[in-house]
Amino acid sequence: MCLPAHTVGMSDPFVVVGGDAAGMSAASKARREAPDREIVVFEKGEWVSYGACGLPYYVKGEIQSLEDLVSVTPEEFREERDIDLRTGHEVVAVDTDERTVTAESESGTVTQSYGDLLLATGSEAVVPPIDGTDREGVYTLGSMSDGKELREYVARARDGEGFQQPDRGPACRYLEDCTGPVGVVGGGYIGIEMAEALAENGFEVNLFQRGDRVLKGFSDETSEYVADHLRDKDVALHLDAEVEELAGGDRVETVVTADDRIPVEMVLLGTGVRPRTDLAEAAGIELGETGAISADAYRETSALDVYAAGDCAEATHVVTGDPTYVPLALTANRHGRAIGQTVTGTPTEGGGVAGTAAVKAFDVEAARTGILDYEAARAAGFDPVSETVTAKSRAGYYPEGGNVRLTLTADRDSGRVLGASLASEYGEGAVHRSHAVVAALSEGATVADLENYDLAYAPPFNTTWDPVLVAAKVLGGQLRD
Amino acid sequence: MCLPAHTVGMSDPFVVVGGDAAGMSAASKARREAPDREIVVFEKGEWVSYGACGLPYYVKGEIQSLEDLVSVTPEEFREERDIDLRTGHEVVAVDTDERTVTAESESGTVTQSYGDLLLATGSEAVVPPIDGTDREGVYTLGSMSDGKELREYVARARDGEGFQQPDRGPACRYLEDCTGPVGVVGGGYIGIEMAEALAENGFEVNLFQRGDRVLKGFSDETSEYVADHLRDKDVALHLDAEVEELAGGDRVETVVTADDRIPVEMVLLGTGVRPRTDLAEAAGIELGETGAISADAYRETSALDVYAAGDCAEATHVVTGDPTYVPLALTANRHGRAIGQTVTGTPTEGGGVAGTAAVKAFDVEAARTGILDYEAARAAGFDPVSETVTAKSRAGYYPEGGNVRLTLTADRDSGRVLGASLASEYGEGAVHRSHAVVAALSEGATVADLENYDLAYAPPFNTTWDPVLVAAKVLGGQLRD
């Protein structure tokens, strides 16, 4: 055997690169399973284990302190969980032959050997390749410090200390009394959540979307539902509006598209994220076709005892069985936790992903899961067919209630449920109702199976047939014809 | 062949006994599938296709008109759906040899031949065998006319035209200013929904439960959660309080238990329902062990071409595979619809039941599904094990939110999910979250499968691990130990 001796113990540390959801879940789980193992976590920033998903609500002002987003503090990890957490340490190299990582900090460079290594390097906000993204007043929202800067900006602007050029007159186009105006580039989750956060603070918000609809991973019908609501909330929606330049002086002043020049005093880029893979690539670890780190069912990469989890890694789609890149918090937590078990002697699969996502946009909620895109479905060997229904969210006679708009997609031949996209008024249950479809597609269930689920019913919660069942009935009817 | 000729057509009517959910779903579906078939529905009352589940909200005053509970009127069935609906017709006999039913109405007796027959005779409220249930002021809530009477009573009492005996002084024990007091016997759905309806109208409500907890089909923890809330809402909860007599003169005046005599001016009996099977029994059609009409997967009874659906019939439990009696609206609709397809040439199974139920109690919501009772689980060959968790309903830092209390039960050896019981503040999603568990147990999924479902997450809707996943993690941990 040419492999180094590999036994679990003090001389065989579990080393984690990256101290957010995946990394800290793994470290914590490993600590619970192996109280005596040495566990070292390198985090280049100061924050660990924070809920980045909460940042838009912090900027909005609904959450008062950045610390509120932190589920466990560095001190708690160190003192209560006995994890050797080294913040301010950036790992700059991994040597899979020597089984070491090299980290740099203010106090110098350290080399740390590992028995097992987890790469949980996360993702970074994509900055689109256009002129002007380096101007002042252009933000992304990927990190706690981004959130801090944006909140400070919002507070200043609300206090009348914004950056309007006094010589250009009132810049708002459609609000009588506005802060801003501001631009949001990208109509995905972050773009929409930030449009809400800014608009609810009195900003005139221009949302620029390159394609013809927001939330492009959702169904057309959900996109339309959300877009209509954004307009109702006075968000200026610029569809098919590719941003060509963020023009201005030191500060951004204008969003330039092919058709328009929109004055702004701030721009938020919500144009997606990409996996941070430099470290893995440099170490010769394989990336998948998606560009994220490839890993097997146990989340082990092409390098022995090197695992990957969270926003830097691929996962297996439960419907297609293919690797996919869906960087979301639950998967990061779940995969981290599984790795924590695996490296402490209980091999545990990380589980697949269904591409499930949820978003709140002002007074509506939306969710999506599975495969909705017909091209993607066909590429996976399916013959997709869909139905969209609009069904009451509660008994028609019940005093509260609204509608759920639900698109259900299935394979024509097998009837297998492939995906769903749902929207409703906030509180009317589009998101929680999606749970039934996630379960169905995770189990390989057919539309007929779904149609027969004995879902809970009472007038304050749904009609006798829950909207999910209504959609299954209608799609089932089409499949039977 | 000694069977009568049996071809679908004008001479071969589809006859339905009972015009509520099961009956009218079957008739409507059969009409859509077979535009020329003769379809005759006998209904002994005047109302058809009404939402009995909405009656408590009508009594409460949140629904203004009884007609609002009717989803399709008799006229619409007759004129738009071309169904020969005969209200005021009570079927008094079925002859399965002659293939006829005999119905009586004000205008006499008719004999109607059938090609296919559906018995959808429903259920009736159980009146417990105690003295005094025939006194004035004692109500049940099984029918539209019951609802009408109760609403009229509530309106009179609120207007100060109640029935307090002037010589007995203030009858309320704990409310300073109350209407009533009144008694509700039975802590199931109807009892609890009516306790809310009455209390919200200013009545002092005494709820009597024979056993030691309300909602006995739910988990102990859910019962406790709901009971605590009922007490918070000033409902006087009398547990382990078997009612021995409803004493009084012409009108009820006192609820007598072994330990107490509670003055009341009205009593609502919410002590469950039993299937109406007289007609089937007299016709020699088999009943099951539950006492309800037995039927196969296609809902056909022991008599050829005679089907049964709704509250008069058994259904197959998806977890145990055994016949069970769970009289609820969705099953009635679903089975009726399947029969409508079967009798028009597309044999369709009715589907099983999971015993899923939901209830709102003031400001809390609760749901249950599957097998929770350990004796029932053992009788079905399982070795049940449970965990109860209390998990946040939304991200901890999110400004809204509460808790979901969730009991999850599984089979120890196989890990198979057997059932769940959930409670939360109203609006915090106990009911819609139960959908995931219904799907899981319908698919025979294990706790490990459930734990890996990629459920939707965003801070306004849950924590990164939805409460359902938290429960699966905790129970999964116990199963792995």
From TrEMBL, chains A, B:
- Stretches assigned to coiled coil: none
Q: Which GO terms describe its molecular function?
A: oxidoreductase activity
Q: Which domain of life does the protein's organism represent?
A: Archaea
Organism field:
Natrinema versiforme JCM 10478
Specify the taxonomic lineage: Archaea, Methanobacteriati, Methanobacteriota, Stenosarchaea group, Halobacteria
Task: List residues of the FAD/NAD(P)-binding domain.
Answer: 14-331
The protein's matches in InterPro entries, at most eight in alphabetical order, are given as: FAD-bd_OxRdtase, FAD/NAD-bd_sf, FAD/NAD-binding_dom, FAD/NAD-linked_Rdtase_dimer_sf, Pyr_nucl-diS_OxRdtase_dimer
UniProt KW keywords: FAD, Flavoprotein, Oxidoreductase, Redox-active center
Tell me its family: Belongs to the class-III pyridine nucleotide-disulfide oxidoreductase family.
Residues of the Pyridine nucleotide-disulphide oxidoreductase dimerisation domain: 357-462
According to its UniProt record, which cofactors does this protein need? FAD
Q: What is this protein called?
A: FAD-dependent pyridine nucleotide-disulfide oxidoreductase
SUPFAM superfamilies, per the entry: FAD/NAD(P)-binding domain, FAD/NAD-linked reductases, dimerisation (C-terminal) domain
